[in-house]
Amino acid sequence: MNGNIHRLFVRCPQRVVFLLAVLLALWGGALTRESVSLSSLKWMNVYHISDFESFHQVLPYLRDLRTGIPPLLSLLEIVAYLAFGSLASVTIFAYRIGIVSIFILAFLAFSRSVLGTVCSFLFSAVFLWAFVVLHPLNPQIYDVFFPLFILLYIGCLQIALKSARENRITNASVLFLLAGVFLSAAELTRPFVLLMLPVLLLFSLAALWSLPKRFLLLFLVPLGIFSGGWHAKLYFLNGGQILWTNHSGYNMANAWKPFIKIPTGQPEAANVNAEKTVYKGEYIKRWDNINTEIHFQNNKLVRHEIFKFVREHPVRSLVHILKRVMILVWPQVSVGESEPDHAILGWYRLCFRLALLSAAANALLLGYLVVSRRRLSYLGTAESLLMATTWLSIFFLAIGEKGEEVRFALSLAPFLAALPSCLGMAANANHDYCSYGSSTPSSRRPRIAGM
After folding, report:
1. What are the b/e assignments for 333-345, b being 16+ CB within 10 Å?
2. What is the pLDDT of residues 220-278, one digit of tens each?
3. Rounded-to-integer distance, Cα 312 and Cα 212, Å
4. 449 Cβ neighbours under 8 A, 6+ residues apart
5. pLDDT, tens digit (0-9, with 9 covering 90-100), for 323-337
6. What is the pLDDT of residues 289-346, one digit of tens each?
7. How many angstroms separate the CA atoms of 320 and 254, rounded?
8. Which of 152, 289, 360, 432 could join 271 in a cystine, given CB atoms 3.0 to 4.6 angstroms apart?
9. Burial of 288 (0-12, 13-18, 19+ CB in 10 A)
């Protein structure tokens, strides 16, 4: 009996992992053959791709952009449109490739043991199918690129650590640089990632601390240039704004409406292009322009009301947050009156809940290992980074909006697809080179001061 259990935790042959990854890719390609996303530029109908007729308009757009349109993805869309005359390369091809890639990356990154490989493959296949069924209800492209950039960041960081230990300096340098690029890309894809950065940087620092400091510098440079540069632009050119959206308070208000009254604020001018825009024979109604300083100031008033309620009613706020988290992680499979009738959705909800239990077990296991073995390096493993990203994302998504829980849960699915396999690997943690804490040799791992 013990022998059979032990075989579940031995390393899975690479040819088996590769074969399953190919099957997952073929399966995903068949499923996504009709998938199409919305353009991120169309958010709130402030802009439309037809507004851009030449590359000379790109810099003024970036200079003035301050609302909830992802700067990186919208820039890619504008460049694709000006270069090819269509958004198909982003909203069709990149979107379809991205959907398949996020689940293949989750599978490949954490399929080491036999048990981990089986768990990750099954969960990835179910979540991939459910994603294709549910995401058309509100196919926002950043629901794909957010987990994609996070998984690439974690993957590059872990491979870079391995290369550094093996003294492959050039490989390690390039991969640390790429890890910083992908983390910055994730931050420029969803605004709440800025609030996650301190934790992710702390976990990354735990992995990098014992290595030469040039590696840490290479990892941080892209964050300083891209994320730091964008937020500096917002602060100095857009009235002291820090988050890259001036609409977050109104999004949060949707989740906190039972407890707050939205302040009136200053009157906001209508969009000068509020008349219908004709694009490829289609009439498109433009909404009010919220990419303004006035909307930013009104947004701050709304956020202030929410934070005021939290300060004055901490217990009621905590109960409300827990309810919002439960709604998100149940998970939902309908938007309004639209609910696809598909057999995979029952399996999706079951797998989602099982994976969430694994995420909770991972968090408890991580806490135990850090305290009992007195090593901060456990924070810097791929499993720990994935677990932290999952729980932080759940928290911020739950309290930051209401009514879009279906696609929020789908954006978490790639992380959850990998977490059960992480627990399976960690369950065999009976020596210093288990999956948790394996990034740094035991003699060089930083210990907690005073312990």
Report:
1. bebeeeeeeeebb
2. 999 999 999 999 999 999 999 999 999 999 999 999 988 999 998 888 876 555 556 66
3. 47
4. none
5. 999 999 999 999 877
6. 899 999 999 999 999 999 999 999 999 999 999 999 999 999 999 987 788 989 999 9
7. 13
8. 289
9. middle
